[in-house]
Each structure stands twice: as C-alpha cells, then as structure tokens.
Amino acid sequence: MESEALLSVRDLRIAFDGIEAVRGLSFDVRPREVLAVVGESGAGKSLTARALLGMLPPGATTSGSIRLLGESGTDLAAQRGRRIALVPQDALSALSPVHRVGDQLAAAVRSVARVSRTKARARAVAALDRVGIPDAVRKARAYPHEFSGGMRQRAVIAMATINEPDVLVADEPTTALDEERRDRVLRVLGEQREAVGAALVLVTHDLDVVRQHADRALVMYAGRLTELGPAQEVLTRPSAPYTAGLLASLPQSVPAGSRLPALPGTPPAPGTLLPGCAFAPRCPLAADICRHEEPEPRPVDERLVACHRWADVPHPAVELFSEKPHVSS
Known about the structure:
31% helix, three-stranded antiparallel β-sheet, disordered C terminus, 329 residues, single chain, 12 helices
C-alpha cells in the first residue's frame, strides 16, 4: 500500500524539448527493501534515478509526483544527503580532489546537523572505519588520489550513509568492475544499508546482481514500466516478452555449446515511438492489438505487467527468442 511506502512515484514524466524520455512511470519503494531498476540503455533508468534525487539535467521538464516519506511537494534536492542519498557510479569524480576525504565526510555531516567540527570529524572517521577502510584516522587525512579505487568506492558509500538516510539511490555502482570488486562493493553497500535501515533503489543492467541482491525488480523499456514484481519471480518466470528477452540473452540461459539467443533490433529513441506497444517491433508475440494499443500495467499474480500477450510467454523464457519462435495473432 502507498501509505507503507518510503518513496512513492506516480505518473512520472520527464521530457526534453517536448519529447518524453520517461512516460507515466509509477512505483513504490518500501522500507528496507532493495528495488532493482533494470533495462537496456535508453530505457530511462538513470533519468528516473536522477529525478528521485532532484538532479535532472538542465532543460528537463517533469510532471507527476514523487512523495518522500508520505510528504507531497517535497524539495528533493533539499533532502539529498539527508533523507535520500546517492551512491554514484564514478567514485573518483564524486570526491573533490583538493579536499581531504575526512573533511568531505565531515562537511556532509555539518550540512545536516549542528555539530562541532571535532564531532563531525569523529563521525567521518567512524564512517570510514564502518565501511572497512583500514587505519581510518590516518586515511581520513588523505586525499582521494591517495586511495585505491576500491577504497574510494567505500568512501562514497560512507558519505552516502553517514547521515542515515531513509532511501539510497545507487546508479550503476558496479559498472566496469570485475566480478570480485563488484561483489565486494555490493557487500559493503548492503551492510551499510542494513546498518542505517535504508531502502535501496539499485539501477543496474546486471541481472546477476538483481538475482543476488534485490527484493523486487522494475523492468523498464522505452521510458515505461514493463514488469514489476518479486525479483526471483520476475527472473525465473517473466510475464513480459521483453523481460524474457533480457533473460534469454544471459549465457547461463542455454546449455553449454548452444547458440545464445539475442533480442532482435534496438530500443527506440525518444521521439521515434510508433503507435501501440514500444516493444512490438522486436517482439515475437506481437499481434495487431500490440501495434495499435499501448498496454497499461495490469496486476498478474504478485506483479504488474504491461503486455497484451503476457499469458503466452513460454517457460523457459529462452524458447521465445529461439531461431523459429511461435507467433500467433
């Protein structure tokens, strides 16, 4: 229920020069849950994350509502670092190169709480120690370039959680990391999220990350919700052909030595959408109704699905994107 949500998004629309990149998106984020937002590049994932933080680029226009802790009309930018915080993708660019790491964390504390510099520095050291940075007292006096890449990532997680926000937004925090570093970052992020009792909105293209860490998954395509539900259900028995296509493209979806299916075509650019379902040109199940009527999200078991043909999605999902899929109308 909406009253139980920490964050409620309703009919969010984000446009540039009148062309919508996010189109009528609605979802809730519940206390302490991990909501993964997935989809191909251009789906609107990062724009949605930026909207939650009040960080949309210049020229963006928005409509709809984003309610934080049940409050309407919240100045999201003013709450950033307090009730909602960002874990950025690029830790190096997120830290000032000319200020000591501990001073930057202390400044984050003092931007929210009226505490002395001494107490703020002590909280900064404690935050660095909590994320596993060794010799935190000494490291707090170091500059970002004196940190390894892994330690910088831990430092930005410490900065995001130092004021114990209610919601964390992590936008592709593990992109370009090898599997070992990815798992380490996600483990630290998960530990800190639990420590402060925050919910997490995790934007990622990595379905393995979703499988291992998410409670629910929101699948986006062409700026809209395609499927939303319990992560394990969505990833094992998808009800949207687009979700099935993403899963079919994973190496573990086919026997060793078999040809890996792939989603045909490419996502549409904003402003080039045809009538009907945006995925219809790439969908093996597309029928006349799909090409003329855009589907609205509808309840299917424990999830929401925006698809006219959801009942025809086969299991396992890889069958839908084999070389000779069954197509009916």
